[in-house]
Amino acid sequence: AAGDGGMCTTNDENLANKMKILRVHGSEKKYYHQFVGLNSRLDALQAAILRVKLPHLDSWSEARQRNAANYRKLFADNGLSDVIGLPFELENVRHIYNQFTIRVTDNRRDELKAFLQSNSIGTDIYYPVPLHLQECFEFLNYKEGDLPESEKAASEVLALPIYPELTGEQLEFVVAKIAEFYN
Asked: Do residue 112 and residue 161 come from a single domain?
């Protein structure tokens, strides 16, 4: 969609019913809440835009997958596997790559991010603070160090450009700049 919006599909009737409830504040009957939900109803304008974009979903997904495969090859060809962790893929699972998130394992993630930015390469960090340390979960009484793997991941992740229109030359440029940073 344009902005925030989307769609869920399922062939499971129970799951479909639960999603319908969750999208209306967790309420099947107005003002009576079975679950903590959201206001996630798709308005008519968002639906119209989504309807136009939906026919392109497969080709966009395939382009993202192709870009991810090219990234993997380029990282291997540039000998970056010691300092860059690539997204894990399960066999027989189709990853869409909304983000291509690498892990910078040498404690230089922020420095690499700044270097890429200085070379006009956009990156982002999904997500810089692990959930257990977010203010909204303070009531759970977690503290720093309680979930070390989550904290480690949050300090290492860096999302690279992966949009469908990305060209092979642009992918090569991104990885070449990462190689330059490490050389």
From this structure: yes
How far, in Å, CA of 63 to CA of 76, rounded?
20
Q: How many distinct structural domains can be found in the chain?
A: 2
- Whether 177 has a pLDDT exceeding 80, the answer reads yes
Q: Structural domain of residue 78, as residue ranges?
A: 56-182
pLDDT of residue 180: 98
Residue 107 is predicted with a pLDDT of: 95
In a domain, 132, yes or no: yes
Query: Looking at the predicted structure, is the pLDDT value of residue 73 above 60?
Result: yes
Q: How far is the C-alpha of 179 from the C-alpha of 78, rounded, in Å?
A: 7
Pairing relation of β-strands 157-160 and 100-104?
Answer: antiparallel
DSSP string, 90-156: -TT-----SSEEEEETTS-HHHHHHHHHHTT---B-S-SS-GGGSGGGGGG---TTSSHHHHHHHHH
Domain of 111, CATH number, reads 3.90.1150.10
**Statement to judge: residues 22 and 89 lie in one domain:** no
Same domain flag for 24 and 60:
no
Closest among 56, 62, 67 to 1, alpha carbons compared = 56
- Taking only the tens place, the pLDDT of each residue in 94-133 is 899 999 999 999 999 999 999 999 999 999 999 999 999 9
